[in-house]
Amino acid sequence: MAPRSDAGDQRVNPIPISLALEEIITGGIRQRLPDSASARFGTMLAGERTLDGRQEIVVCGTVNAKTSSGVGDKSFIAKVYPDDSSRFELVAMDDETEAARLQIGGTCRAAGLPIPDPKMHL
Do residues 66 and 45 make contact, with C-beta atoms less than 8 angstroms apart? Predict the structure, then answer.
C-alpha cells in the first residue's frame, strides 16, 4: 500500500505578520467584500513553505464585515507568493455554512495555523 499524503505535507513554518504582509492580506480580503470599509480583522496567523520550488505564505484569519446577509464574522485562508510580486490568492472564505467553516478550520489546523472559529463562542 502506498503511503498517503498526510498533514505534514501541508504544514508551514509559522512567521510573524509584518506590516507589509498585513497590508497585502487586508487589501486582498477587502477587494472581495461588498462593503470593504466595514472590515475589521481579527486573529491572523501566517506561515511559509515551499511547494514545487515555489515559496508561498499561507494565512489563516478572521474578518468581521457587512455582507448581503448582515454583519458577521468570517474565517478565511489565503496565500501570498513573495517570489511573484507578493501576489495574493484567496483560497476560501466562510460562506456562512458549517461545511465551509469546518473545511477552512481543518485546512488551517493541518497547516499548523489554528484559528478560533468565529461562530463558536465559549
Answer: no
List Cβ neighbours of 25 (8 Å cut-off, separation of 6 or more): 17, 44, 46, 59, 61, 78, 80, 88
Q: 3-state DSSP helix/strand/coil percent for the chain, to nearest 5?
A: 25, 40, 35
Q: Output the nine-digit C-alpha cell for 60.
A: 489563516
In order of 52, 64, 72, the CA distances from 119 in angstroms are 35, 11, 9
| 94-103 LR contacts (CB < 8 Å, sep 24+) | 94/118, 96/69, 96/72, 101/75
Sequence-ordered alpha helix ranges (H) in the chain: 19-30, 98-111
pTM attached to this predicted model? 0.84
Residues 21-58 have pLDDT tens digits of: 999 999 999 999 988 888 999 999 999 999 888 999 99
The three cell numbers locating residue 49: 513553505
- At 53, which amino acid appears? G
Residues 6+ away with beta carbon under 8 Å from 113: 12, 14, 45, 46, 47, 58, 59, 60
